[in-house]
């Protein structure tokens, strides 16, 4: 082997921001020759330490000095698949983030060195086109193995003994895809199982592999569900990458459609990922997937211990867990033969990662699916306007499987008077429902902490004339400030709309609502889903389970109570404050309000009893609230798109947010202005907003600049160059420069 062939380039899994996206050259020593390839995880001497690194290119880099190159020490048994290596590179490119940070997302959670685990051979799946695959004939010995195999699997030694066959027979069955090797550690979550047990995989019987005949284990599909399954299966079966949006009203049975598609993928020997916004809030979904597919399901979430995560990861890589369910980061699951990614509740804001790399799950999923020619399916009752405007074909479910969609009723708080947070009509409705032994959900959306300013008499909210975003009151300067464009306004003494009412900052009184409820309902019947509970997934599950069993009962909480829950005995939904999410400084405020109201209303009346939805609002005439109450989806989306287009917001522009932060206010300001001057020549004036001073956060003075570019690729090119040139000089002056492509948070 030539010397140059033995050199590889790798990226250490270390935060080395000051080195940028550098790769390092190392030599593969003779004893490891043949073991190192693209995606190999290795340990190398780095400075005085030994660190983990991923091989990202073969052959030396351009300026490598052969005399200084050190040797790779060890090669791990785990590696990054070529598909995920490419994904990490695309991600770094798309989100202007360090390659290293992206590699971390796809790197195995734990690695082992040495030969011991090298025996754990990955299973090879035979991919068969449905219905037309070659019939697999089994020899007498192979058949005997299948006959003696207990459903829960057995160790190879046990199997050989009981079937009276040698190891070679098992191996052939593995290679044919009739058996799968299962890691015994995965089931008992620990312990030193040495022999991999072998379990029978359900192989598709050819005539079952058509849509109609797939084992359902569920209901008879409604005609709409059935049509959706057919359309989506056809898309899935095409040889191209496909993108679909399943737009189905709340309670239309989207989950059942997902399950049928997943069955299809499994029957064909492929792999799938089902993403949910938040594992803790979706116990029902997980239970249903596990019910249907049993041990072929892997679950990934942040609540797993390191050992559990490593074990799930191994089952996924081995092809044992071929349906992976998880929150955001599960989009990186190393599923072999990935054919389908489903994004449930695709509009949910948790699908954006708020740390570097600040990726959007939808974009990542599409990158993966484009590589494997599979299907990306977004599902939602309230798709984002960006999803609607994407190239995804829409598949609609317009009716509920059971019950009727409730017609929300407006409770106009301007006419209520009194100090109570719950209007009289709301309190009566609650009492009635509880008397009947039914359940209620009360939403108290506290997202509006930003403290918008509104008129006590007419409800008018102070907004920026340029941006149509709410203004935030800054008490020190006594000014109203637009966080989007930076324009400031003096606070008027009286409301400019009605010229009478005094202006006040609205902060919803959560404590007061809690008290009011406890006066109406016995303590043990109130279930509060708040951020205290949310810190633990098991506590959330316990709380939701307890609520499910408690009739009468009231579930109170923030937008968490609006998400996907399916409690058939909930017959009343009360929205205590429809307005709080409305005037936050975010161009998506109207969309989020519309979505939240539609979603929470959708929790009512999912069983035999019809549901009632009462929405308390100070702004019944604000379009997004009015249209949510009228269930006028199309009207809302039309209006929203019109506004977005006029103001140059997504989906008509691609946003990038550049954030400059420093404990030193002068330096932060100087850097922000410098950055803005550097960028100005490259963008038309209207595409560059700022710099805007933001409220300080944890002692950091912060400024941001927002680029709203019609041509996203070009903008990213300019911004990448700027970052490469400026990040390091800023850093030396104590100023951090962060970039957020496709931002969803602006505070
Ligand atoms: P969505 O996710 O669209 O809001 P779900 O998938 O939660 O709706 O389904 C709503 C309810 O209807 C669930 O309780 C589900 O078990 C039930 N369901 C779904 N499909 C059917 C069907 N074909 N027949 C009867 N019930 C169904
Ligand atoms: Zn503004």
Describe this protein's structure:
With 747 residues, this protein is of the alpha/beta class. The protein folds into 6 domains: 115 residues, 3-Layer(aba) Sandwich (GIY-YIG endonuclease); 77 residues, no CATH class; 190 residues, Rossmann fold, CATH 3.40.50.300; 185 residues, Rossmann fold (3-Layer(aba) Sandwich), CATH 3.40.50; 61 residues, no CATH class; 88 residues, Ribosomal protein S10 (Alpha-Beta Plaits). The protein is 31% helix and 22% strand. A 7-stranded parallel β-sheet has the order 11-12-10-13-14-9-15, sandwiched between helices. A 6-stranded mixed β-sheet has the order 5-2-1-4-3-6. It is globular, with a radius of gyration of 28 Å. Bound molecules: adenosine-5'-diphosphate (ADP) and zinc ion. The site of zinc ion has 8 residues, from loops. Adenosine-5'-diphosphate binds next to helix 8.
